[in-house]
Amino acid sequence: MADPWQQCMDYAVTLARKAGEVVREALKEEISIMVKSSPADLVTVTDQKVEKMIISSIKEKYPSHSFIGEESVAAGEGSTLTDNPTWIIDPIDGTTNFVHRFPFVAVSIGFVVNKKIEFGVVYSCVEDKMYTGRKGKGAFCNSQKLQVSGQEDITKSLLVTEMGSSREPETLKIVLSNMERLLSIPVHGVRAVGTAAVNMCLVATGGADAYYEMGIHCWDMAGAGIIITEAGGVLLDVSGGPFDLMSRRIIAASSRAIGERIAKELQIIPLQRDDATN
Questions:
Q1: Whether residue 220 lies in the annotated active site
Q2: What whole-number distance in Å separates Cα of residue 104 and Cα of residue 92?
């Protein structure tokens, strides 16, 4: 039987590339910045423009499908995940990088049916790297097959994470003490590229051995989550239990052993779920 979602995936790749061109062009212009939930949670006109372009293009082609987009949610639309085919979109993952012209900025599109990720597309625009993952078909970067490192020894691992956009003293204390606990295991190092999607894709390439974060959203993880699992990696909750796309927390690792070892060290930050009704 033909793959029912292949056409959708091909379209997602086309749209991500088109969105990437808009982002690259915008990097040459003056960038106007607005603030969302904290002084470090930024949004630009380009975020909003790119999301509008992606959603309106998909709506035209697939009018019965649902959407969860970062900027639509910020504007007051809900983010409830149903069984309907749903496109989960982050128009610019790494907005702070974009604002500073730090060269890691991605367009992320995840496609979920019956609450399961079917495919993901992450386009790292400045690097011109197109990461894709399709359930049961493998993960690729610019058509090269991806494979996680398979590292099982935490003391030989390189981790990626982010400091997050919260500037609450209590949250910062937990973020930094978690990092300190992991560093003193010891691990080889901790890196932060500034975009959850690219961090996760780096685990899929084998460049990093695991990524963990709390406080991100479904649109940060939906594109890259399937790229990790199709490259042979695992997704876990920060408690070590099963991964939940709407929980705002993740461990993405090259092996279950490393994922579970990280979970042992993490103090959990209490967060409101993406699908919580206000």
A1: yes
A2: 10
Q: Which residue has the tokens 């695992």?
A: 234
Check: CB of residue 179 under 8 Å from CB of residue 263.
Answer: no
**CA 224/CA 187 separation, integer angstroms:** 24
Q: What is the pLDDT of residues 93-132, one digit of tens each?
A: 999 999 999 999 999 999 999 999 999 999 999 999 999 9
Reported as a single tens digit per residue, the pLDDT across 208-229 is 999 999 999 999 999 999 999 9
Whole-model pTM: value is 0.97
Catalytic residue among 54, 88, 92, 117: 92
CA 187 to chain centre: 23
Annotation marks residue 90 as catalytic:
yes
Contact status, residue 47 vs residue 97, Cβ threshold 8 Å: no
* C-alpha radius of gyration, the chain, whole number: 17
Q: How far is CA 152 from CA 189, 209, 260, in A?
A: 15, 9, 10
Q: Could you confirm whether 95 is annotated as catalytic?
A: yes
- Which one is catalytic: 220, 230, 265, 274? 220
3-class secondary structure, 255: coil
- Angle of helix 196-205 relative to helix 218-230, nearest 10 degrees, comes to 10
Q: Which of 51, 71, 90, 162 is catalytic?
A: 90
Rounded CA-CA distance 40/114 in Å is 34
**Beta strand segments in the chain, E:** 33-35, 42-44, 66-69, 86-93, 106-113, 116-124, 129-134, 138-141, 144-145, 158-160, 189-191, 210-214, 234-236, 249-253
Active-site option among 44, 46, 95, 171: 95
| DSSP letter (8 states) at residue 185 | T
CA 170 to chain centre: 24
As a whole number, the mean pLDDT across the chain is 96
